[in-house]
Amino acid sequence: MRKKRDVYTKRAKQEGYRSRAFYKLQQINSKFKIFHSNQIIIDLCGAPGGFSQVARDCTRGKASIILVDLARIKPIPGITEIIKGNITDVSTVFKIREVVEKHRSRKQEIVVLADCSPNVSGNWPTDHAIQIWLSRVALGISNYFLAVKFISKAFQGESFPDFLAEIKEYFQDVKISKPPTSRKTSAEVYIVAQNRRDSNLTLFDTNILLKDE
Questions:
Q1: Which residues does the annotation mark as catalytic?
Q2: For 26-48, what is each residue's pLDDT tens digit?
Q3: What rounded mean pLDDT belongs to the chain?
Q4: Are strands 64-69 and 188-196 parallel, antiparallel or unpaired?
Q5: 21-32 and 50-58 are packed helices; what angle lies between their axes, rounded to 10 degrees?
Q6: Burial code of 104-128, b = ≥16 C-beta within 10 A, e = fewer?
Q7: Which burial class, exposed, middle or buried, applies to 138 when counting CB atoms under 10 A from its CB (0-12, 13-18, 19+)?
Q8: Rounded CA gap, 63 and 3, in Å?
Q9: pTM score > 0.85 for this model?
Q10: Domains within the chain, CATH numbers bracketed
Q11: In the prediction, which pLDDT does 13 show?
Q12: DSSP reduced 3-state for 29
């Protein structure tokens, strides 16, 4: 299995993509048809940029793509804006909002991608808890922007069912996907949520950001 992973890593390097994560999202999009040109795509925890490259290619460079990560990211052709910041910091969300407002037209829809993961410590309960917490933060950001689609990594474990149920409160069509690129033995899956439900959420309502556990 490690050999299979290395094949994707080598392929990404040969084809000019930032990471093997490119192929994960590419496979998810082939199945669920996430992207089209009339979108603003917010790529959270997006370093080094593989997800944003998928979004760029699938929209033929016509969507606005905002790549956000705490790590410094080298410029990527076709990416609208790269924001260096922590998604758990409200000031980062406000920076994203500035870019969204700059590029948004009335009919454009928002899509949020969240490939969030901690620096794995080897302590599974801790790693799982942090990963789900980061993904919950990303869900709060997707609600802040009233995103119509939310694609999030999630580690399966004790907190996973509650996180999945929370997503279903906001989206009508929620599927779990494990792209072929992911290791079969890994707890990693992706949640693909589409078609936002009618709710009492209000655009840019800071009360829905960074909810306490």
A1: 153
A2: 999 999 999 999 999 999 999 99
A3: 91
A4: unpaired
A5: 40
A6: eeeeebbbbbbbbbeeeeeeeeebb
A7: buried
A8: 35
A9: yes
A10: 2-208 (3.40.50.150)
A11: 67
A12: helix
